[in-house]
């Protein structure tokens, strides 16, 4: 259907236009937008006109930006919204008790995708942002969800070439395998300085009605003198509440049952 | 470009497919989806295949649902995200002080669109939901934003046929004009039972760097015995914080200056 000579579908080309906008490029001129999509200008301009007509894009003076329409359509039905609505009150509890950034993340296409973050306390460096991504092997969220996930995902991770962010980032497959086993045994992950020297991430799993670890609740605390035990306890308590709100009945899959 | 015989653009048809999903229809069979779009089945199926290839849709067993991709693309650049990120810490403050649902809303295409809601206290009936819409004339958010907005928007509202939700919903243009003037004078709106008998909405404006009222912060409290004065004070205090976070310098447009 309406594929270009390059074989790209219209949906693909529309996504390329939407994708050209990000946190650093919230408004773009039509020319910049065409350039960022890599589409022929005439194609890009026609798609822009179509998306303006649908209120997916809107004019911002001489520039273009994403309108509210797509956000509204996506938000009212996305599985992300259900998860974050269930988690938000419990995230507030964690933030109140621990006093540091509280973050909700999932694994999406081999990376950690953060879907909510609360807390205005800027006492430690936290590079997570909503709708931002970080690598699995360097984050507490990535490690706990991989450790409690399917064995094949662990093997895939161990076969990948992993980037060393700091001197405590584990990139050696054997060492990472031992760390995953330890996280599975403990039921939570603690990652000290693996992505930013000064910060420690602590993450616990959230289970769905099938007892599958579908998301992680985490805090980012100062590596030196941060409230580590308090964080673990608060997260474990809150994550049970979120899991229950998602229909979890308190039973766990085999891999997790051994440890918790 | 690739317009159908009916003259609809591809972007329009893709939006119709995405739009078929909502809070009550988070997962759909391909046949249900085709039916809800009103598109010819073959067209709907081809668009579904394209959207599956782009991870905009994903399979949920035998059904289809919106994937995370579009949420991610939209969230990282939408103006909604910047507003809600600025507002969220202050919404938590209001929720802590008032103890009732705290809501963030904007006006979008002649309706109120709610973009965030926090608070798990279920002490009063609150029909707002995230990415949900309510009518301007029956909500505190709609009235305060219209009262402080352009005069032409007020005239447009007064010319519309307005629905009476309860016996306190104002639908008479002359009465509504007086209420708008009163809201403009006070700088906030209080709507008692205008959409749900048992609840009162209280809303204050949030200003952007240009001193324009772009959103409203509101609470929904019990109509009988709810903390009305506390709500007004907490909202006024918090809204100044949100406005400042958006770059507002404390000066107001003429319409508002008179009152605050």
TrEMBL record, chains A, B:
Protein name, UniProt field: IclR family transcriptional regulator
Occurrences of domain IclR-ED (ranges): 69-248
Transcription regulation found in the keyword field: yes
Ranges of residues in domain HTH iclR-type: 8-68
Keyword list, A-Z: DNA-binding, Transcription, Transcription regulation
InterPro entries given in the database record: GAF-like_dom_sf, HTH_MetabolicPath_Reg, Tscrpt_reg_IclR_C, Tscrpt_reg_IclR_N, WH-like_DNA-bd_sf, WH_DNA-bd_sf
Top-level taxon of the source organism: Bacteria
PANTHER family associated with the record: HELIX-TURN-HELIX TRANSCRIPTIONAL REGULATOR, ICLR FAMILY, HTH-TYPE TRANSCRIPTIONAL REPRESSOR ALLR
Annotated Gene3D superfamilies: 3.30.450.40, Winged helix-like DNA-binding domain superfamily/Winged helix DNA-binding domain (1.10.10.10)
